[in-house]
Write a structure and sequence with these properties.
It is globular and about 70 Å long. The longest helix has 27 residues, at 60-86. Helices cover 39% and strands 24% of the residues. Helix 1 packs across helix 3 (30-44) and helix 1 (4-16) packs across helix 4. The chain has 312 residues and is of the alpha/beta class. The chain is built from ten helices and ten strands. The chain has three domains: 4-83, Arc Repressor Mutant, subunit A (Orthogonal Bundle), CATH 1.10.10.10; 90-161 and 285-310, Periplasmic binding protein-like II (D-Maltodextrin-Binding Protein, domain 2), CATH 3.40.190.10; 169-282, D-Maltodextrin-Binding Protein, domain 2. The strands form three sheets. A six-stranded mixed sheet has the order 4-3-5-10-6-9, sandwiched between helices.
Length: 312
């Protein structure tokens, strides 16, 4: 009989690529992971791993077994959801992941609604970049999370996860009202909030090709989005600052330190001196959870609170 815990280790190796990464994510030692995978190979009766020097890759049989593991783990999530639904009332921790702008604008209202309906539920919120959500959900570090993608950065599919749409928002180019002439962008007009559709350029991103740019930290989806948007406009951005917090980004734009791309959730209260030009680009936010866990009453209750908080 194949052991579910060992199947989970094999599934994580398929996603994370190295035994060391699996061990770090699941709080094992690398030697313990290797030993458990060796036992799984004996249980399976066929080689599941190929070892070349210090590298380990899955054999075709290993990949096939991972597909079965995904199905088994999904069924276990569904079973846990049904058992939770049979209990009276929701109680205990619910580990929630969010990106910062949703954490500031959406999460507080959703948690207030959730507490009103389920006072014994204990939400525990952690900020996380959407790029790390899949690993955190599979590892059990999170139960549910908010993720986003952009027109230029679609979300990658993951066999172990499901998502549901929550909201869609426009993107804005944030620029100073009086940019230096050396930037080549010209005057951008008066400052305005995100409800004001400033600028009618055919290429509102390309007009700032000579300006310094403020991007998120490398490795994040926001960084990839801004980089690809600039490349689509025909240039590579000259990055001056790497900042994840949109309030800080807007403060730097105000004093002429650069231009940036900001989603609507991050541009709700811009400081004076910032011009927000609405773009055709969109950001989409989704609710993510382990496949099979969408019916869990705690996850479903939180998803319902999120939709109520966003008017969905």
């Amino acid at each position: 009989m194949l052991d579910v815990r060992r199947l989970r280790l094999l599934r994580e190796l398929a996603h994370r690529g190295t035994i060391a990464a699996v061990a770090e994510a699941l709080a094992f030692t690398p030697s313990a992971v290797s030993q458990q995978l060796a036992v799984l190979e004996r249980e399976a009766g066929v080689p599941l791993l190929e070892r070349t020097g210090r590298r380990v890759t899955l054999t075709p049989a290993g990949h096939q077994l991972v597909e079965h593991a995904e199905a088994v783990l999904e069924r276990l999530e569904r079973a846990a959801a049904e058992l939770a639904d049979a209990r009276r009332g929701l109680a205990g921790p619910l580990r929630i992941g969010t990106f910062p702008s949703a954490g500031r604008v959406i999460i507080p209202a959703a948690l207030a609604l959730l507490a009103r309906e389920h006072p014994r539920l204990e939400p525990m919120v952690a900020e996380i970049d959407p790029a790390g959500v899949a690993d955190a959900l599979r590892a059990g570090e999170l139960d549910v999370a908010l993720v986003h993608d952009y027109d230029f950065v679609p979300s990658a599919s993951d066999a172990g996860l499901d998502t549901e749409p929550l909201l869609e928002e426009p993107m804005y180019l944030a620029s100073p009202a009086s940019p230096p002439d050396s930037w080549g962008g010209g005057k951008a007009g008066g400052a305005g909030g995100p409800d004001q559709d400033q600028g009618q350029d055919q290429d509102p991103v390309g007009r700032w090709s000579e300006a310094p740019w403020i991007l998120a930290m490398p490795g994040t989806m926001c960084h990839a989005m801004a980089t690809r948007a600039c490349q689509a406009a025909g240039f590579s951005p000259r990055v001056r600052h790497h900042i994840d917090d949109f309030s800080t980004v807007l403060a730097l734009v105000t004093i002429g330190q650069g231009v940036a791309l900001i989603p609507e959730l991050g541009a709700g209260d811009p400081p004076p001196g910032v011009v927000l030009t609405r773009l055709a680009m969109r950001r989409r936010t989704r609710i993510a959870f382990r496949r099979g866990a969408g019916a869990h009453p705690a996850v479903a209750a939180f998803a319902g609170s999120l939709r109520a908080a966003t008017g969905g």
